[in-house]
From TrEMBL:
Biological source species: Rhodotorula paludigena
Stretch list, region Disordered: 178-295
Single biological process term from Gene Ontology: rRNA processing
Keyword Cell membrane: no
Family named by the database record: Belongs to the UTP23/FCF1 family. UTP23 subfamily.
Compartments where found: Nucleus, Nucleolus
CDD domains linked to this entry: PIN_ScUtp23p-like (cd09865)
Compositional bias (Basic and acidic residues): 240-256
Top-level taxon: Eukaryota
Skewed-composition ranges (Basic residues): 272-281
Compositional bias (Low complexity): 188-202
Domain UTP23 sensor motif region: from-to ranges: 207-225
Protein name per its UniProtKB record: U three protein 23
Annotated Gene Ontology cellular component terms: small-subunit processome
Length: 295
């Protein structure tokens, strides 16, 4: 039984902490009857409160509740001494009010100060259940109990959770609104391009994707693209010749400038032809000279 109770109260206080911002030490407002019952049962109040809430508790008493204890007279001297050990809470009631009224005022509409209420008053407990986020502790026979969260508390918790989950409809609209048009937009043009280019153009996009990141290739592609504007069927042959010629000239120029590596790779054909011509001419001249010399 006791293990079940401690586990249950831990769960309940976890709810108050997570949903309503309760923190240790829990500030507990006690009424006069609660203290009287504790003294009568000879409770170690601090230890009992700790067990009941499964956390550090800071018991407090309002001026009106203290006045109620004073009003009991000399018979309640021991109880008054215990209550004096608690922190006095100012309720700003100039004239002492009935305890229920005072504690109801302390709870206010939403228990903003996050008090735990320890009261033996049934009337007050019923009133506090209607205030979401108001933990209630009471003593039944010789057992100190933490009430299960009220329906109002659970409803408020659920309401806040749904509010957190759904964020705000405006943000949702903004977030979902942008990606929805943006996501289909890139897909649609690619499909349209593929359809317009033809059936066999499935490979080029892949090649583009793969070759895109590589640095040196696009540089050479740009030079070819600049003259060739329309990639049609018949024209590329002529342009390839022109491009080859341009590339050969470029290679020759580079070769003249001293870039030897590009010579054999690019301008092989024409370079060999001209070398051959030069060699032939040179050889013929030399041969002629030699012949002439011999003659
Ligand atoms: Zn008061």
């Amino acid at each position: 039984m006791r293990q079940k109770r401690t586990k249950g109260s831990r769960k309940v206080m976890h709810l108050y902490c997570s949903a309503f911002g309760f923190r240790e030490p829990y500030q507990m407002l006690v009424d006069s009857a609660f203290i009287q019952s504790c003294v009568k049962q000879k409770f170690d109040i601090q230890a009992r409160l700790h067990d009941t809430l499964q956390g550090v508790v800071k018991p407090m008493i309002t001026q009106c509740c203290m006045q109620a204890l004073y009003d009991l007279g000399a018979t309640a001297q021991e109880v008054v001494e215990v209550a004096k050990g608690f922190e006095r809470r100012k309720c700003n009631h100039l004239k002492a009010r009935p305890e229920e009224e005072c504690l109801k005022a302390m709870a206010g509409e939403g228990n903003k100060n996050r008090y735990v209420f320890a009261t033996q008053s049934l009337e007050l407990r019923q009133a506090l259940r209607k205030i979401p986020g108001s933990p209630i502790v009471y003593i039944a026979r010789s057992v100190m109990l933490l009430e299960a969260p009220s329906d109002q508390t659970l409803a408020k918790k659920h309401q806040m959770e749904t509010a957190k989950l759904h964020v705000s409809p405006e943000e949702l609209a903004a977030i979902t609104g942008k990606p929805l048009p943006a996501a289909p937009a890139p897909d649609a043009p690619t499909e349209a391009d593929a359809a317009a280019a033809g059936a066999a153009t499935d490979e080029p996009p892949k090649k583009r994707k793969k070759k895109g990141p590589k640095g040196p290739n696009p540089l050479s592609v740009r030079k070819k693209k600049a003259p060739a504007q329309d990639p049609s069927a018949g024209r590329p042959k002529k342009r390839t010749r022109e491009d080859e010629g341009a590339a050969g000239e470029g290679a020759r120029e580079e070769g003249r400038q001293g870039n030897v590596a590009s010579m054999p790779t690019r301008g092989d054909g024409e370079a060999r032809k001209k070398r051959k011509r030069r060699r032939k001419g040179g050889a013929g001249g030399e041969a002629g000279d030699a012949d002439g010399g011999d003659e």
